[in-house]
Design a protein that fits this description.
Elements: H1 3-8, E1 29-31, H2 33-38, E2 49-62, E3 68-78, E4 83-85, H3 87-95, H4 106-125, E5 130-134, E6 140-142, E7 148-149, E8 173-192, E9 199-214, H5 216-224, H6 233-247, E10 253-260, E11 266-273, H7 280-285, E12 291-293
Parallel strand pairs: 6-12, 7-8
Antiparallel strand pairs: 1-4, 2-3, 2-11, 3-5, 8-9, 9-10, 10-11
């Protein structure tokens, strides 16, 4: 078992009572470097920028007088961080606020909890964490509206998908005469938890600008090959980015975002982009003050 798997198994796959009281020791940090090494991603010279956004839909705490406070918590931190937070440890940590008392009013309770969460996660992951509680009345910002379903470009009757372990050799490109932009959505992304092997589903949004055309049928085959892979969400997003980055020219624009469906009350939305590309959707999704959605699944 790798060091990453040992750390992830701290809570995963085990019966855990968590804590009835606020308990930051429940948090588990996972080093990003181990999986990156397999794909020749150098931590000191990343081929991408980006971040991870987390939505915790079931955060709750109590005021000093025991009044329940419940909100959607949005978290964000940079992909350059050496660590990511293991999802079950985050769930148990956030649950430890459920029966803990903070502040005299609802707003005081939320502000205190926000400051505690940012401090605890920043210390654990050794990076800056942005957190915010989203009100039920918050406007829903629709993003990635110009991305087209990749299946619109594929003949379903003749397409044959046979490999379900990550298979970059399936990817094919065709040289074109001019640079062109492609906006594609794959709504059938599936991978599996690295430790529990439970399935994770999501929508993948892909943009690239290049003289090379990545054939859509080869992209569907490649993205489908993740169905039997066992990785964290962030790892899958980086794997896909790196395979496409290696396929395209170094100065081409590239963007990969995986909006995963929530599991255990939490969803994870990793974003990776080439350093020469920064779309408005990235700014919106990465703004912890905004409720941004790209699909009905979120």
């Amino acid at each position: 078992m790798s060091k990453t798997d040992e750390l992830a198994a701290t809570h995963l796959g085990k019966k855990s009572q968590g804590s009835e009281n606020y308990n930051p020791s429940l948090l588990v940090a996972i080093p990003r470097c181990e999986n990156r090494k397999q794909y020749n991603i150098n931590d000191n010279s990343l081929p991408f920028d980006g971040f991870d956004v987390w939505h915790a839909y079931e955060f709750s705490a109590l005021t000093r007088n025991g009044v329940p406070v419940t909100r959607l918590l949005k978290l964000k931190y940079d992909c350059k961080s050496k660590f990511l937070v293991e999802s079950k440890s985050l769930k148990l940590y956030l649950n430890s606020f459920n029966m803990s008392n903070f502040g005299a009013t609802v707003n005081e309770c939320l502000e205190i909890c926000k400051n505690i969460i940012e401090k605890d996660l920043s210390e654990k992951l050794q990076t800056k964490i942005d957190a915010n509680f989203i009100e039920n009345s918050a406007e829903r910002k629709e993003i990635f509206k110009n991305f087209q379903n990749i299946m619109n470009f594929v003949d379903e009757k003749t397409l044959k998908v046979e490999k379900f372990k990550e298979a970059p050799e399936l990817l094919e490109t065709k040289e074109t005469d001019e640079e062109k932009s492609y906006y594609l959505k794959f709504d059938s992304l599936r991978s599996n938890c690295r430790v529990t092997h439970q399935p994770d589903f999501g929508d993948l949004f892909l943009y690239y600008k290049s003289k090379k055309h990545i054939l859509e049928n080869s992209l569907v085959k490649y993205l489908s090959s993740f169905r039997s892979e066992f990785h964290f969400h962030e790892e899958c997003c980086e794997m896909i980015f790196k395979r496409l980055y290696d396929l395209l020219d170094s100065d081409d624009e590239l963007f990969v975002c995986a909006l995963y469906t929530r599991r255990g009350g939490i969803d994870i939305c990793p974003v990776r982009r080439s350093k020469n590309y920064k779309p408005d959707e990235v700014l919106t999704l990465g703004d912890v003050n905004k409720f941004a959605r790209g699909s009905i699944k979120q």
